[in-house]
Amino acid sequence: MANLLLQDPFTVLKEYPDRLTQTLETPLQTCCLRFSHGGDYLAMGASNGAVVIYDMETIKPIAMLGNRGGGHVRSIESIAWSQDDRYILTGSRDWHVKLWDLQNPGMPHRSVKFNAPIWTCQWRGEGNLGCFGTVYEEPHAFVIDFVPATPIVEKIIDPTEVLEQGEHDRSQEEDSTEFQHQDYGYSLVACVHPIHKELLIVGTSKGWLKIYRIAGRKTNLVHTYRFAYTNAKHLIISQSGDRMAINSSDRTIRQYFLEINSDLTEFNFTLEHRYQDVINRLQWNSICFSSNSAEYIVASAHGSSARDLYLWETSTGSLVRVLEGAEEELMDIDWDFNHMYITSNGLETCNVYIWSLVIPPKWSALAPDFEEVEESIEYREKEDEFDQAGMLEQQQELDQAEEVKIDLRTCEKFDVRGNEINYNRFVIPTDYESILMLKYWDKERLAGH
Amino acid sequence: MVTLPDWCPAYSSRKKDVETGEEVFCICKKPDSGELMVGCDGCDDWFHFSCLKMAKKYNELVFSFYCPYCQAGITGPGAHNDGKLPKTLWRRKCRVLDCFKPIAENSKYCSEEHAVAFMRGLVDRVEIPGQDSSLVLRQMLQEPDFDHFKNLGRNGLPTPSADLAPGLLTNDGTLQDLEAQLRELRGGAKNGVETQIEQLTQYSQWVQTVNDLLFGDNTQENANGDSAPAGGKTSRTRKRKQTVKRKAICGYSSELKAPCSAEDFVAEFKQLDSESTELKGVCCKLRCVRHSDWLGTRQTSLQFQLESLQSSEQRLPLLIKIRQDQLKMQLYKHITKA
């Protein structure tokens, strides 16, 4: 990656991508995509269950999850990278959630089967191999502990809710008034609060948000909030944890300001903006926030007439940019803040589109006295320009400049855009075995001719 | 189109020096000074070795020489429209590194002395600590007849004897790992998957029977003309498509085993109230979205497993061979001086 400090700051510090710069034509029918946290890799899940990882430096595939067996066999619904980018979670319509260790991507590290297709899967937090998942037609989300060889799956359920559930089944016939229990519907989406990692926010099919607090083996439903009377399709929270957006089936994206008091007992949702397509009343396919406090939100629209990504400023709620270039409906979205890439996959061709910044080369950045000229000009030496007189002073100045110790070894903690970069990134090992096999097959093929 | 090399001046047909009238040769257009020259087979002119940037030591290796002009088609056979441009041909050189004599007939060497010298050089490069290298070499050529010698190395690298490198192939971790994987694979992993497929087929047939018993008349009405289903999975899916609204219970159970005979199940099912969705662990919903395609998913998954096991079965022996060759090569390189 080019040294961003040397580039034109006005371009580098733009807060969202400019234009379509790359189209990846893969043989797969990509339906789900996710950047690694460092932005070095892009994982793409396909409708046949394949998951391929692209290296973003070379824009070439470098690993295929499950090429030694044990891959998914139905379309991938959800992909999640672990915080250190070493592990990947995949949830699929084939009822499995699989955990992959990229040290050995040929076989799944762990696998767990549910009794219905998977909606979403998500990491629980840093360090441990814990995961949350939501499953088709299940009233509760699940927590999966992947540490033991046979993963432990538990329902995320408040002790008081168990009663409710029994009551609820009977209430259909008897209409029991003894408990005015609420039917929240099926749990569809789940999201861990990025700051308070013990909080899990679940969005349901009846428009409820349920906030669980999970501490050790204790699970408490600490808050519920009804945002609408419809399905929750996506639920995202900004990195800073105070902005939340819900994409729901009523063709609306609701953006909330989220306030939580320090002992995690009081929750306050303030509806900031609602994003709707007022003319065509389109559904939103997917949504994504920008980094940190989420100054921007980007969404893809449903329908063959919609071919762009829409980007709004979250503070004012106004549309600031339409990312054009793709010639088809766009589905999933992900945003890599390190390289300032936004990626999305097309519905028809299943190509993967990448929008990013185009930084023009700026030579004057290399030395402050470099000057860029449009045409060649004849240089006229100034009267005292190369005089010997000032040489001594100049030399002293240079010596002084050299006195300053330059630290070349300590890594910067943040890049110019304010993303944390000083952490150990996992590097996917080169699969030498496959290269050997390819070479062998090539030789065989040549010998055959 | 071959162009002239950039050090070669453009062609000139001049044969005599303008001033002295002496005959001139080569691209340099100078008279013969006794320096080594070579005659071109295309234009019959003579050329200095040094002018053509050819080392003089290659003198004896020239088989048929063509000057740059002939090679570019300006003079010689290439100039007469037959199109084919001539090229200089060389004789094969003796295998001894600094000998530039051409090889003798049916040999790779210029003379018998050099053949012996070359082989001696090879033998001298072998250096095995604590052992007589010539003895070891002799041992490697166990059957010292000529045909055997000629074929040495043609079928992969020869395996070194046990006392030369004890445990070379048996003590290698990677190799042991691969071999263990292969043993495990051949030990019946495939059978396991095949049994599972068998079980699944049996269960799907049971579900089919139950559905036929429950809604049998329904099917016959809708699917008239459809050939009798053999109970296979393909006929089942095909039938599904033709009779879109065919009534059938989902039939998914986590065990994938028939809980009782189809007749008993049907009898119990008919006594069930309409609200129930499960009987003996079997999902009885009529149009079950939740478990839709449970059979197909499971079948594909097992099929995939079988395929990947088969490809591993092909891959592993190959990897083992590659690793073995690698180890042997390392050993041979180790005992040979550069």
Topology:
The complex is a heterodimer of chains A (449) and B (338).
Chain A: H1 9-12, E1 19-24, E2 30-35, E3 41-46, E4 51-55, E5 60-65, E6 76-81, E7 87-92, E8 96-101, E9 110-113, E10 118-123, E11 130-135, E12 142-145, E13 152-155, H2 159-174, E14 187-192, E15 199-204, E16 208-215, E17 218-226, E18 232-237, E19 243-248, E20 252-260, E21 267-276, E22 284-289, E23 296-301, E24 309-313, E25 319-323, E26 330-336, E27 341-346, E28 352-356, H3 391-403, H4 432-448
Antiparallel strand pairs in A: 1-28, 2-3, 3-4, 4-5, 6-7, 7-8, 8-9, 10-11, 11-12, 12-13, 14-15, 15-16, 16-17, 18-19, 19-20, 20-21, 22-23, 23-24, 24-25, 26-27, 27-28
Chain B: E1 37-39, E2 46-48, E3 62-64, H1 68-71, E4 89-90, H2 112-125, H3 133-140, H4 146-151, H5 173-222, H6 233-242, H7 262-271, E5 278-279, E6 282-283, H8 294-334
Antiparallel strand pairs in B: 1-2, 3-4, 5-6
Main location (chain B): nucleus
Keywords (chain B): Metal-binding, Nucleus, Zinc, Zinc-finger
Domain PHD-type (chain B): 23-73
Polypeptide structure, described:
Chain B: Keywords: Metal-binding, Nucleus, Zinc, Zinc-finger. Chain B: One of its GO terms (molecular function) is histone H3K4me3 reader activity. The complex is a heterodimer of chains A (449) and B (338). Chain A folds into two domains: 17-165 and 182-356, Methylamine Dehydrogenase, Chain H (7 Propeller), CATH 2.130.10.10; 363-392, no CATH class. In chain A, 11% of the residues lie in helices and 38% in strands. Chain A is built from four helices and 28 strands. Mean pLDDT of chain A is 86; it is low at 165-180. Chain B is mainly α and 338 residues long. Chain B has three domains: 1-91, 2-Layer Sandwich (Herpes Virus-1), CATH 3.30.40.10; 94-129, no CATH class; 173-302, no CATH class. Helices cover 42% and strands 4% of the residues of chain B. Chain B has helices spanning 68-71, 112-125, 133-140, 146-151, 173-222, 233-242, 262-271, 294-334, and strands spanning 37-39, 46-48, 62-64, 89-90, 278-279, 282-283. In chain B, the strands form three sheets. Chain B has a two-stranded antiparallel ribbon. Chain B has a two-stranded antiparallel sheet with strand order 3-4. In chain B, strand 5 (278-279) and strand 6 (282-283) form a beta hairpin. The longest helix of chain B is centred in the middle third of the chain and has 50 residues, at 173-222. Chain B is elongated. Residues 219-243 of chain B have low confidence and may be disordered.
